[in-house]
Model the fold of this input.
Amino acid sequence: MVIKKSTEKRDPYFIDFPGRVARVQKAMTAGKIDVYLGSRLRTASWITGAFCPWRTYVVIPKKGLPTVFTFVIDAARVADDSWLDEDHILGYAPMGGMDQVSLVADFIREELGVKKGRIGVENGLSNYLPEGVLTHFEYQQFEAALAGADLVDAYDIIDKLSLIKDEGTINRFREASRIVDIGHKAVRAALVNGGYKGKTETEIGGVAAHAMRKAGSEWEWSFTGGNEIASGYRTGLAGGACTPASRRRIRKGEPLMVDIHAMFKLGQGDHSHNYLIGKATKRQKWHAKNFIDIVILTLKTYRAGISPAGLAEEMMTFAEERGFAEYMVPGFEHGIGMTGDEWRIGMNDGPFPFWTNPDHLYRENELLICAMQYACPDEEIGFRYENPILIRKDGCEPLSRYPLGVEEIA
Done:
């Protein structure tokens, strides 16, 4: 087949998708897997290079190209976006023999000739709603339709291979972060000189979205409400990790948290900036200084060879010494990857099944979100910092360049 233009090596966003498939097949051989049946959104994104919002299955044989099965209404568009051609992006539908299980199972048995052996599937659990692991019903149906073959867990093949990011992927994240910075500039311009008066959180989210779309963003990708805007007491909600914009109006004397998202070729931009509206009180400034200082220290501490648990211990010790540990959520990152790979950091080979291994040692070219939440519900104030960072040998590279600060807006 002819590789599509978007994967030509002169493209700074080039990804060697055939090479990815070859590495999966090598791992399949090592694991004695005859067919890989992927169902997770992260797998569909990583293998196809296309946005697959409908239930999608990726069938990878021991040799040759993958075949993707997605909802028939979207198959042509996915084929247009993917490096794979239309012969390898097929649609399922609620018709005799065309449903998901029948179509995929028949393909594996008849087209690939696999009637026995081991079929790798993606089971498990997640706190991320669109993760895409097989449901109990799907598992039972595939088990019956593929009688004679064994379904075995093989999700770790994709997880291990996708952990270290190639240059084309990194450049996609850099561009998404550049777009997010444009969104922040537009928001600030809309707030200053009294511009915040009368505006709602949803309006602020729209200002950011409009600016980012003009700059090339394809989607405000976060499944936690697109652009997350919080004002007043909503900034200090305990835990505070999800604040989809509400219709609440921005008010003088209150904090404002602007957490915005962009997507560029499935690479994700995610950055939070914080404001104090009107003249800040001494106590508000105390909270703001605590937050800025710990963000600076955290970014200085990230590097290859440290672990999530080790970093958290260092940061919480600092917070305790300064007297604000009770306001910090004791986690300092969340996962990031191509769309569909948001929540977990590193590998899930630790003490809690399917969760991040807290002792995972970061390696060069891992990409994650430095994600920090400071929340004081009693005083109705809080701040958030999120920024994609690229792990380097002796530090990290924050991909958003928007200046760190808690700005006072008159």
